[in-house]
């Protein structure tokens, strides 16, 4: 008889931890990197792969070359794009160069020093907050660049209220339609 594997739930930052992390950012570059992860769910390697010519400021998109050589588009908020545009201009970064000239290890160390957590915890934080704010699982799968919905579904187990909220929402729909 095979033993069941215990599913480990991803750890993520609570609201107060996110606030403290952002408050502790020392420089503009570090804050932009951290906000990119928290606001778009990017992996560190994806952040480090961003080039100015992959950013479309007018349409508010960034083209990402993701894991498994899959490309996707992310949609950061306008404010973050303004910060990114100013950073690129101030640093005189050429179109074909990477925006951030850091190693993965250095980004890990920056985030670890500021929060005591790994950068991937920020990605988990994005996913949980996205779902808590009403986002759907299929869209989250696309945002995160997961090839399988099963990979993305682990985040549902972190939300206490998801099933109850969905049930209540359906009940209201049902009664409005049939009563």
TrEMBL record:
Q: Which Gene3D superfamilies match?
A: Intergrase catalytic core
Domain named Tyr recombinase: which ranges? 8-171
Keywords, in A-Z order: DNA integration, DNA recombination, DNA-binding
Q: Which InterPro entries does this one have?
A: DNA_brk_join_enz, Integrase-like_cat_sf, Integrase_catalytic, Tyrosine_recombinase_XerCD
Task: List the molecular function annotations (GO) for this entry.
Answer: DNA binding
Tell me the superkingdom of the source.
Answer: Archaea
Query: Which GO BP terms, alphabetically?
Result: DNA integration; DNA recombination
Stored PANTHER family:
INTEGRASE_RECOMBINASE PROTEIN MJ0367-RELATED, PHAGE INTEGRASE-RELATED
Query: What is the protein's given name?
Result: Tyr recombinase domain-containing protein
The species this protein was found in = Candidatus Methanolliviera hydrocarbonicum
